Amino acid sequence: MTGSSELRVLAVANQKGGVGKTTTAINLGTALAAIGEKVMILDTDPQGNASTGLGVSPESRSFTSYSVLAGHVSVLQAAVPTEVPNLHVVPGNNDLVGFETEYMTDRNRAFRLRDAITSMQGEQAARTTEAQFTYILIDCPPSLNLLTLNALVASNAVIVPVQCEFFALEGISQLNSTIEQIRGSLNPDLEIQGVVLTMHDARIGLSQEVASEVRAYFGDKVYETAIPRNVKVAEAPSFGKPILLYDYDCAGSQAYIALATEMIDREKARPRAA
Fold first, then answer.
1. Which domains does the chain have, with CATH numbers?
2. Choosing a second label site near 11 at 20 to 30 A (CA), which of 27, 33, 194, 208?
């Protein structure tokens, strides 16, 4: 446990689909909760897969991240406890599809999530008898749209999952460019917290080549821990469980525990604001 009540907001983003964003958000959040952090996952993908993967059924999503972005409820009002102690989720659903169109003319459209999280911090501070959330992980949709822009503007840093397959780096330069643009105008403190190699198979030459390419591109931003291609990791969401609950001893679970440990070490080592 970090022992700090400072809230850190991390977007899990890559505009390519199928790279393991949702799986990483769910299982990294679960691993962080398991080591004593109080974690919230914000599901901003209209598909709502992070919510499903944490056992929150569509019919039980009374309030969603759309409700938060629209200003109907606060983040804390929308948060739903999961089966994992210390882990909550703000669910996502198809209502998010209309967000971009509805708020395109809103001058504050890029800051709606940031403002909601700022309000949440004030609300938390007033609840002195409750443990405060220490991490928010934002599961972004697979595109660089207004939802992803809101996530990046609201975040301290970005975690980028990269699949160990052909064309893995395709579009990464676009994401990098977007992060640079946001840093230059909307969120000067935004940084890449880390790059996670997903669906890695050490037996396959291509996986090793891609891992080397990604490390050459991102340098020490790439985590040492790579998430292996693992059938249990793929199965777990259909049972509404994070992999740590579905099969704690499998290679995927152990990899996410190692990744969470690495991430916490990086967080401890980062310079603190004065």
1. 8-269 (3.40.50.300)
2. 208
